[in-house]
């Protein structure tokens, strides 16, 4: 799962410090102590765009996308192959992000008609898109096929016929992968490897040979290879290596019938949400996976296929921060002292990961630095829900108070994409920063947006009108 709430982190030597592994590369404090991201200071951002505000450092996204592509490609070339990297759009999808990652040489994975629409609206080359999902509608399949999507990832036996039919109807040969579950489930430094996995995605590995043959019976389908995705927030290569070994045994069987050009090992590469998180550098993970693939291919006497990967979180997560304005602060007695509840103007509507997964985050003062001693804080949102926590436990200068801006690090992935309108809170805008410039890439919602879908309001009266 996600980075989970552990023990309370140790009090930092300096609660103003910005740990480089947690904050976007290059984030710093200016002479006045204000947080600066992408060359733009947090106070200026809050004044111009309001809070809460999602801030994404464009250069960091682009650099990470390039770094991942190069790391996987270098590792694959070392074992006589090549790698394709797809950005998993569900982490955070907008047309700007699609352009950044495609310009860095990545393909894009989508898993609904809506995500496909965004990728196409951004001008992505359809042949470099993958379409996932355990329950794609017949309409979505037809749309993906008609758009010329590079690959559909078949997730169940039923989908073989559906995709074959859609492709035949469109007069195309559709490339497909077959999603299997390898029985390996990984997170951070651990993985669990079982024979069977009780989960909704994919088909059991034990059926892959049979279903691969079924795919090959259709003239309208072209079988690219196996696909699997073993988890999220994974810090090293071990789980991927185990999964690759299991897949390659089956890949080799399929390859004996006809060449299987590709093996897709999915995403799930971890990032640092707090200083306690220590993901291995992606180059080392890529090398570890490549070594395991090369060894397994040799053992099974099969050519090393082209490798494919699907990072989402690890591309955009570290590039994002969320800015909030503090409204209230209250000390609450606990069994071992005091905890300061710092309430901010957003919450589970803009970041549900803490409530949903017990995720851990890092918070810092963004509008100033302070010499006050550190106090243990819990950053709470404004929603009518006691589980509405943004940062479960971290330390801020003791004098944090109303009007201060705070920043939460590593919010680039699975925050905006999981945002809601709970309590009719409008979703915040997303601002991209780069070289000292800020621009809106997704506009924020207004109350008018919230009311616009309410069918009980007479459109001709406008939102303030009362029914006649
Ligand atoms: C979610 C998902 C990803 C991306 O996972 P991250 O943890 O964001 O890297 C990649 N592939 C598939 C099939 C997924 O479902």
From TrEMBL:
Pathway note: Amino-acid biosynthesis; L-lysine biosynthesis via DAP pathway; L-lysine from DL-2,6-diaminopimelate: step 1/1
Q: Ribosomal protein as a keyword?
A: no
Ranges where the Orn/DAP/Arg decarboxylase 2 N-terminal domain occurs: 63-316
Question: PROSITE patterns under this entry?
Answer: ODR_DC_2_1 (PS00878)
Q: Where is substrate annotated to bind? A: 313, 353, 357, 385, 414
For this UniProt record, give its keywords in alphabetical order, as a comma-separated list: Amino-acid biosynthesis, Decarboxylase, Lyase, Lysine biosynthesis, Pyridoxal phosphate
User: Known NCBIfam families for this protein?
Assistant: lysA
Quaternary state and partners of this protein? Homodimer.
Full protein name: Diaminopimelate decarboxylase
Q: Tell me the organism.
A: Agromyces sp. G08B096
Q: What is the lineage of its organism?
A: Bacteria, Bacillati, Actinomycetota, Actinomycetes, Micrococcales
Give the gene that encodes this protein: lysA
